[in-house]
Prior knowledge:
alpha/beta; 12 helices; globular
Amino acid sequence: MTTLQQTKELFRRADAVCFDVDSTVIKEEGIDELAKFCGVGDAVTEMTRKAMGGSMTFKAALTERLSIIRCSREQVNKLITDHPPQLTPGITELVERLHQRNIQVFLISGGFRCIVEHVATQLSIPLHHVYANRLKFHFNGEYAGFDESQPTAESGGKGKVISMLKEQYGFETVVMVGDGATDLEACPPASAFVGFGGNVVRQQVKEKSTWYVTSFAELLEELEKI
């Protein structure tokens, strides 16, 4: 178990920092917003809570929630246009500072690629640094499921992505930042984990985090110490 000082040190000299997206980089949970937009908000929010709390496998929760939502391509596009994801205060400055220091930034999300790519563009993160789930649609735009082969569709998927990044880029130090159980379980293979409670505090994650922050300003401050 890394100590608080070790975790901070690893963050300062990371080769790459990977961020979760829902309730971390953005204020909301993308799947809940999509459900609300499609008129099935309550049923899906409850299931998201179970998935994030770790009481059901991620893939089972994702399959079940999407089968309730059954969103069309048109609905997804309209959601992004009418209710674009709200960035968490401080994330723009933090990503900018990481980029200035030549620390690679990745977004690893159990959410949907179409929404996460929109967020990446706002933060000047290259789209090939985005790992998220892909929704599938029939030729007429109706919901056709999701791509189950993506590592992020599985419990433990974020860790698989980090292992892959280490292998592909030769990274030694990779730090994962996130609010949920799926982020916490990505360390190891991540060298360190920073728990984020700026949008929602998940008690189980807070208790198990060596370094837990409620604002991105705390991470920015740490980077300025060098």
